Structures are given as C-alpha cells and as structure tokens.
C-alpha cells in the first residue's frame, strides 16, 4: 500500500512538473485564434488535413487589365493590381490546395454608359454620398465602399442602429417641443386638433419602430446584411412620419423628419435600388471554381526570369536571380545599379541618394500628369523635362526639385546623362518591385474561369485574384465568405512547425543563438578555470587568513544579485563596455558557489595522492590539472552545467547592458513577441522551445555527472 502511494505521488509530481512544458509545446503548434480560446484545449487545427478559411471580399482597383503593354502593365501593377481581394478574416495559411467557390458566381462584362445614365435618372443620390458617375464600375465600387465594405461603412450594425434610434429620439424631442410651445400657433382649431392627433400617433409609432430597430443591434456580422437592410426599410416605410397637411408649424416638423428618419430612409432606398440594378445587369455566370497550389522555389525563380526578359538590364537581373536568395533579389539589383552609376560617372553615394530622391519626384510629377516617363527618358532627359513643363506650368514642388537638380548639374560632368541613367534605373527598379511582388506571392492556377489570370496569396492574409476584361466589383456581392484549403501529409507537417519558422524569422534569432552560445561557452570555461584554481587554493594550500577569506567569499552569497546590478552597471559604463561582449562575460566569470562546490569535492580526495605527487616532484599546478581535476570530473561538469544554464537563461543583465541586436541573446530576443497591444503566445512558445532545446539536450547527456557531482560533494 505504501509503495502504491509512493508511485501515485511520483506520478502526480511528474505530471505537475511536465504539464507546463507540455502546454508550452502544444501552444507552439497552435493557430493564432486558438491561443486565447476559452476553455483552453490540448488540441490544435494545425494537424488538420483541410480547413475552411473565412474571407471578406473587397475590390483592389477600379480598372481591369485589357491587353496592356509591358510598360503599361508595370505602371499599372505598381499602382494597384486589378483584382478581387479576399481578406482573410481567420488564421493565415501558407500552403495547400486552395479552392475558391466561384462556380455559379454572376458577373457582367460591363454596362454601357447610356444604360447607366438611364438608371441614374431614376434614383435620387443622397447628399452625403459623394458619387462619381463617370464610370459605372467606379460608381458601384464607391457605393459598396461607402455602404458596406469601407473602413467605416454606413451600414455598420452598431453605428447604424444607434444613429437611427437616436434620430427617432430626436424626432420625439422635437414633437414634445412642438406640443408644448408651437401647437398654439395654429389658429385653425380643426387643423390644430388634426395635427395634435397626428403627433400623438407618431410618438406611438416611434416607440414601436425603436423596439423593432433595436433587434438588429445584435448579429453575427459587423455590417448589416441586405436582408436586414430591406427589413429595416419595410419597418420605416410602414409608418407615416410626414404630415401631409399644412399649418404654421408643419413645415418645421417635416424638415426635422427629413433630416432625421428621412436621411436614413433616403440612403436605404438608394442602396437597395443600386443593389437591385447591380444584380440585374449581371448576366454572365462563372463556369468553375478557382483551384490553385503554391509554386515551388524553382518555379518562382523561373517565372521571375521569364518576366524580366524585356528589361534593359536583363542579363544582370538573370545573374542575380540565379545566384542570390529570392528574397534579396530586389535589394541586390538596386545595389548593383547604384554601383554601376558610381563607377561609370564617378559620383559619391551621398549625391547619388539625393539625385535618386529628386528624380523620383520628377517621375511622380510626370505620372500625375499622364506622362510616360520611360518613353520620354528613352529619347533624352531634355525631352522628359520639356514634356513635364508643358503639362505642369507653375508647380512649387517641381520648381524646388528642378532648382536642386540644376545645382547638381553645375558640379557633375555629363549631368543630363547621369540624371537620365539614374531616372531610368529608378523606373526599372520600380517595375522589378511590381513584378517581384506578383511573382513571390503567385500560386499556380490549376483550374479557373477564363477571365481569371493569376492568384496571389500574400502571407496567408490576403488572396488577390487578378482578372481580365471583368471588373472585380461584380464579385463583391456573390457571397464568397469562405475558401477551402486542403493539405497533404507534407503540408500538415509544415503547418505544425509553421510557428517555429515564423518565430525564427520574426527577429535575428541566428545572431541571438550565436551570441548565447558564445557567451555561455566562454563564461563557463573561464569560470571553471578560475573556480578550479580558487577551490584548489582553499582546499590544498596553506596561507595566512585562508579561513577568513573563504568565509568572506561565502558571505557574498548572501547578497542578492539585484543589489549588484547598479554598481556593476556603473563599472561597466566607466570601462566603456556597454553593448560589448566584455559586459556580458567579464562580470560573471567568478562564482562563489562553484568555488565552494569544487572545494568541498577537492577536500574529499585522499591526501596520500598529494604526498605521492610531491615525492614524484609534482608542482601544485601539475597536481591540480593532472590529478585533482580528472578525479573531480562529476563536480566540474555539474558546475559547468549550472553555469552554462544560468548564462543561457540570463535576461535582466543582458537587457540592461545591450542596446542593439548585435549583442543580445535569446532570452532578450523573446521580447519580440510582446508589445503594448498584446503577446503572440504561439510564436513566443515556439521561440521558447527552440531556445531551451540545447540546454535540455546537454542536461540529458550530462545528468549522470550532475547527480554524481551533487551526491559526492562534501564526502571524505
């Protein structure tokens, strides 16, 4: 029975000790939404072979891709892709087979301006809606942005319901004021009686409407659905708030109605009519879903090489793409272009940076005025300037830029050719950035409707569908609320460890790892050497005050480490060691505990060995390193392990004496996942796991020495 109780207690103790580490590892596998879920679970969807991801559709632009030239396409892409954006309102995904439910989605290839104008003549545009009626698709997009998909949509549930209820209450207050102070102004008694009765009915109706409208304050979606909007419209239309008669105060009353309830009813009416017309003109139907899979690294490289074939520096770009990491291609290309300009025209890098900024301003001014900078610069720099001046006229920004360029022209030889080369390089770099973004996020389209040209998945947070000849606004209302992602076995394995990849890339953990290993190793070696020599002196050598000095050493163990932080910091500052390895190593190479531990063990070594060594002519130095240290391997390994772990886990001192990532360690690096807005616990746990892993492995291999060293310390 006693044995059973012991086993039960051991099992409970083991569970209590292991549970936090197990929870840390489980959390490191979790998706962001699972971290703060309640009640907490030991499971995670990272192991799932498929997942439905919630998305919110929005348009990416107001124009479509219709047979653009390379230059036009590059300029277009640099502004904004012509696509339908599906913003992920869920946990991000990075791989798998993506299926977007497009089959049966209705769309239109466009509506004529004549038909559109005919529709506009039949609707009343609200005064608070800034309408652009020059382009149907632009108009529809503005409507959806203003009413449903913008940052602060008109039909945002809480704001709309509170505003409408507030308008009803405002109308009720107005009626109360009229009943108290204005009703007596009506001279016709019959009209007065009729109006009073009307106001009484309105007050009752207001209370009923408020009760019905308040039901829509709660809902699953932030923005009211079309069904809810129509229902609210029916509620408001059911009651008559406008007085049809005429008297001394009726005009003021009707004006109040128009500015309160009327404003909301006008906007609802307008949106409902636009939406009905929008649905009516969609006479086409998508024939299939969109299915896409990620490109491999080599496929992305080949695609990028294929897309830069028309660049003037094609050969340089191809060389960089083949010999440089894909993520560094743009920066390396920019550096090589700058180096060529510096070498060819003999200008310094500071002047080059200023000229790039100034010429970039000119390119932006040209673009704002509809000029093709690249075509003009291909002719000459003078043609470029002349074209800008003919369009711009007087422009303060242009004048300031030109005056600075003219000042540089007086100091630089062949200034116009230098300016032209730098400007062309800037345009080429801008084009490369646009194509690079299109390539690095591209997924291979397995199947899709004919008008779908590309699918981009940007860090698992946005899906962009590039369209041709079809405006993306026509798909905003197709009810695409989820996309399906299917994972292979390999994908699942990568999903499970995705947090580790994200955590590693979130900060320079490679540098942190090097610093931690270097500092912990050097500190441990130096401490073992110093402690071994000090312990030997206190155990085998005789000198005046040995006992007193050792007592003083032991007394320092009573001083909390936090008390020493300020004096140590002041000392380090005086030496100029802030943000150096010296500050992280030197103050911690002496450990009184390690000296005490080794001394106790050294004293357990038989004195006969020392006598024999003396007879053989051995010195203290030789006796220490050839006899005492080898016999004390367990305690030395124990001291080393304790020091290594302590140095590995050091946080406060490292945080105080370092200012840059160059010298910081893993423990300080874990701060990257905490901020004022919250903590990314899944990434933090992933980083913590790979941070403590080396220490755990070392302990597993050295635990027998650790136990033996502690057990034998002090025995004689």
From TrEMBL:
Short name of any one Pfam family annotated for the protein: BPD_transp_1
Domain ABC transmembrane type-1, chain residue ranges per copy: 513-702
Compartment(s) of residence: Cell membrane
A GO biological-process term: transmembrane transport
Gene3D superfamilies assigned to the protein according to its UniProt record, in alphabetical order: MetI-like
UniProt membrane topology term: Multi-pass membrane protein
GO cellular component, one term: plasma membrane
CDD domains reported in the protein's UniProt record: TM_PBP2
Main location as per UniProt: membrane
Keywords: Cell membrane, Membrane, Transmembrane, Transmembrane helix, Transport
Transmembrane segments: 7-26, 512-536, 548-569, 581-598, 640-660, 680-702
Family recorded in the similarity comment: Belongs to the binding-protein-dependent transport system permease family.
Protein name: ATPase
